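Checklist before submission:
- one chain only
- standard amino acids only
- sequence pasted in full

Submission:
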Amino acid sequence: MEITVAKIIDEYTIVINKGSDSGIKNGQRILIFTIGDEINDPNTGESLGKLEIIKGTGRVTHCQSKLSTVSSDMKNSASRTIRRNPGVHSLREIFGYSQEEVEETLPAKKIPFETAKIGDLVKII
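Returned file contents:
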C-alpha cells in the first residue's frame, strides 16, 4: 500500500491517496518525504539505499473512504527570553531602578510542509 500526496491544498494542508478503506484513521501522524540519491558506503562501495528527504510531519484531520486530509503538526519554539540590560547612563539607573529581565512567551507558530509536491511519499509514524 503506497501512500502518496494526491493534492496540495495550501502550504499547511495536503490530501493523501488513502482513507478509511485502507486503514487510515483521524489523528494518525504521518511523515511526508521524497526519495533522493542512492548512498554508497565509502569503504565498501555497497549501496546503503536511497536517502529519504523529509518534507514534514502532519496529522490526519479528516478521513474519507479513499482519501484523507493532513495538516502540518510542526511548530516552532513557543517561548523566548528577552534580557534588557540598561547601560550605565540610562535613565532607569539615574532614578534608582535596577536592571530588568523580562521573559516573553510567544505562542507556538505552525510551520508549513517544506515544498510538498503531488506524488511525494507518505509513511505512518
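Reviewer check: The chain is about 5% helix and 50% strand.
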